[in-house]
């Protein structure tokens, strides 16, 4: 939730108090589960790997809509992506370690591909 009229670059990436993150979101458990499931489904159907942040709209009738998938989300210590992971129990250093491990796994898979007959 932006704390200013306009969600500026400074509010997103520099000012720790530029926006208020409500973690966890104020959702009933069933809606939270639908959002989580839809985030995973969106990530998979688009064949994403590594990191991404899926953003949603929640209509007043409870309908959940995918707004966008951001495959290169902000990654400063005050960005939403690492803060959301931290709130779920994965601290920033462990998140970086996990992303490096995923990249190494992908590199290993890619090296195993046959590129010549």
Give the beta-strand count: 2
Which class best fits the helix and strand makeup? alpha+beta
Provide the number of structural domains: 1
Shape: globular
Classify the fold: give the CATH topology: D-amino Acid Aminotransferase, Chain A, domain 1
Q: Based on the structure given, which CATH architecture is correct?
A: 2-Layer Sandwich
Strand order of the largest sheet: 1-2
Assembly type of the shown chains?
single chain
What is the average of the pLDDT values? 90
Alpha plus pi helix count: 4
Helix content: 40-55%
- What is the CATH level 1 assignment? Alpha Beta
The run of helices and strands is HHEEHH
What do you see in this structure?
2% of the residues are buried. The protein has one domain: D-amino Acid Aminotransferase, Chain A, domain 1 (2-Layer Sandwich). The chain has a two-stranded antiparallel ribbon with strand order 1-2. It contains 4 helices and 2 strands, in the order H-H-E-E-H-H. By secondary structure, the protein is α+β, with helices and mostly antiparallel strands. The radius of gyration is 17 Å and the shape is globular. It has helices spanning 9-13, 29-45, 80-87, 92-112; strands at 53-58, 64-70. The chain starts with 8 loop residues before the first helix and ends in a 5-residue tail after the last helix.
């Amino acid at each position: 939730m932006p704390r200013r009229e306009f969600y500026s670059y400074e509010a997103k990436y520099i000012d720790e108090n530029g926006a208020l993150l409500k973690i966890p979101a104020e959702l009933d458990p069933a809606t939270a589960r639908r959002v989580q499931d839809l985030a995973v489904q969106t990530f998979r159907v688009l064949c994403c790997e590594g990191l991404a942040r899926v953003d949603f709209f929640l209509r007043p009738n409870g309908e959940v809509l995918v707004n966008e998938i951001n495959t290169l989300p902000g990654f400063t210590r005050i960005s939403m992506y690492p803060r959301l992971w931290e709130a779920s129990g994965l601290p920033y250093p462990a998140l970086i370690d996990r992303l490096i491990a995923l990249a190494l796994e992908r590199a290993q898979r890619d090296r195993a591909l046959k590129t010549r007959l």
